[in-house]
Amino acid sequence: MSLCLATAGVVKSLAVASFMLSWAPSAEKTEWQEDWRVTPQGLEIAEARVNGSGAGMEPLPDARLIDGWYRRKPQLPVLPQVALRNSGMAGEWRLCTDGKCQDLSAIVGRPLGGAAVTMSVCKPDVAVKSLDAKTLLARGDDFNIKGELDRAIADYDAALKVEPALAEALNSRGMAWRAKGDRRRALSDFDAALKLKPDYEAARANRKSLFSEIERLGAQMPLKGPVKK
Fold this sequence. Notes:
This protein is α+β, with helices and mostly antiparallel strands. The chain folds into 2 domains: 3-127, no CATH class; 131-217, Serine Threonine Protein Phosphatase 5, Tetratricopeptide repeat (Alpha Horseshoe), CATH 1.25.40. It has 7 helices and 11 strands.
């Protein structure tokens, strides 16, 4: 699943299954945090907590004090979207994933002022269109390593739609096809990568290894041109 952030014509997609929102008034030392999940049905809040009390940030009666934080599970349904707005009188909302936090303005790439940012679960076409080719390639490589080959190939396909001359995506897709047992497609991708980058050593090594495997298996596959060893 992916989280989409939209504001003033800008849409940013984050490939996350969960995230944390953080907010702290500039005049207070207290901090408000919320844990969210990205689900097929929408956005689900898992927990809200505050590490003290201050103007407008008093813990609610059902909150429990655990490790210095007043924690509670908000009784909210799964939401199709959530709007966040900076008041201009307090700190900016921050979004955290994998222990790293960024201001929303840094994520969307522009100052927000009082403009709202709407969070929602990305539709598949929006998630792909909002990612650049290198991001899609990196995500595909992650899926490839995990053995999720169909998802990897889908990301490589998307990366090549954005940047058709991305030899690295062709090489990685060839590796995924080979892992799936489709040697013909794998060899075609390695050939295409080398056509774009004749000095691409990783693609050359993959092609040589695959061709040796084909020879060992006695596979009958038409090849274009001599094998470069």
